[in-house]
TrEMBL record:
Domain HhH-GPD, first and last residues per copy: 38-185
Family membership noted in the UniProt record: Belongs to the Nth/MutY family.
Cofactor binding note: Binds 1 [4Fe-4S] cluster.
Name of the protein: Endonuclease III
Binding-site list for [4Fe-4S] cluster: C187, C194, C197, C203
PROSITE patterns in the cross-refs: ENDONUCLEASE_III_2 (PS01155)
Cofactor(s) the record lists: [4Fe-4S] cluster
Amino acid sequence: MKKDDIFEFYARLAADNPAPETELNYGNVYQLVVAVALSAQSTDIGVNKATRLLFEQVKTPQQMVDLGLDGLKEHIKTIGLYNNKAKNVIALSELLIADYGGEVPANRDELTKLPGVGRKTANVVMNCAFGAETFAVDTHIFRVGNRTGLAPGKTVLAVEKKLEKQTPSPFRVHAHHWLILHGRYICKARKPECWRCPVADLCRFKKKTPAPASAD
DNA sequence: CTCCCGATAT
DNA sequence: ATATCAGGAG
């Protein structure tokens, strides 16, 4: 996409939502790490439903270790991939205690050493907790970037690099949230709602979906 | 590349 | 019935 269109693309999303935030619920940075780790291939709504009770009981890595593997599984049974996620969250909590004094490191390379925390999760934590200009490319951003032509790429890393290189400075902090929310509610995987899309005229995906009255 | 895996929308 | 959901590890 051309430079002026990229600027216009973000300017319009920003106008609709000046201060976008994650929709995952959390009370501290440790809980943010856990919530994002649990969110893989699952909806934010489903994760929030499970963490509401969990986070009342567990606010620190030590409290998670005390809860134990089976106790954690009981809380997150309703989330997909819960066996792997439970093991990772316990292991991640133990590592935070052993190597980081129970604190979450404010550094992407250190975050990535935590079990269940890959580049995307680390980028989310760096942005949401520490204000870093990171672009956490998830399924939504990968789709929106490719479909619209804003940031095409064959891999999530390629899309991330493109976003990092081309995103104008006024938008760099919030860009990834604008793109996720846009993908979640308008540029949806199954049924994109182009008729109410604020950037449809900038989008290479020319599929003109019907108006809502005749959409279904 | 495959496996992990429940809830929800279509 | 099947696709999709804030991916990561082996």
